[in-house]
Amino acid sequence: MNQESRTLLAITFLLAALFVAMNRIVDSAPLLDYWLALALFLIGAVLALSSRYDLARGLTHEEVAAEAAAAPALPRVQVYEFPAGSARQLNAAAAASAPLPIDDAPAAQSSAPDLALNAVTIDEPAPPPVEGDTTKEGGDGAAG
After folding, report:
1. Residue-level pLDDT at 141
2. N or C: at which end does the chain have fewer Cβ atoms within 10 angstroms?
3. Number of helices followed by number of strands (H, E) in the chain
4. pLDDT (tens digit per residue) in 17-43
């Protein structure tokens, strides 16, 4: 189990112990009923303290880091191999990503004049009647 997992489990157990203890306090329980909170706290404390040591070798994280710094660094080389037909696709992708030419000439004006805003009319059909509607046509629907 890595250090992050142990730390996350330790936090979870410690929070659970806190919530159980708060529940016992609210219930005004006797001290003997705090056994679950104490057990959860101990499990969380053991996990929290064990995250400071490499349990497999009995070393602290500082000692493990010192060993890693003393060891020579091995180069990481990743070799990518492409199939024979992929060169054509790569060239097509490079050509597609080329910048588009920019034309600074003004856009051609259309021969039709622009419409005025009040000249545009929108014809919408009336909504269908609703069954059981008690409002009369032309009324505001208020009773009275």
Report:
1. 52
2. C
3. 4, 2
4. 999 999 999 998 898 889 999 999 999
Beta-bridge partner residues of 60: 53
Please tell me the pTM assigned to this model: 0.40
CA distance 110 to 108: 6
Task: Answer whether 7's CB lies under 8 Å from 46's CB.
Answer: no
Give CA 75 to chain center in angstroms.
Answer: 33
Distances in Å between the alpha carbon of 26 and those of 22, 23, 29, 40? 6, 5, 8, 18
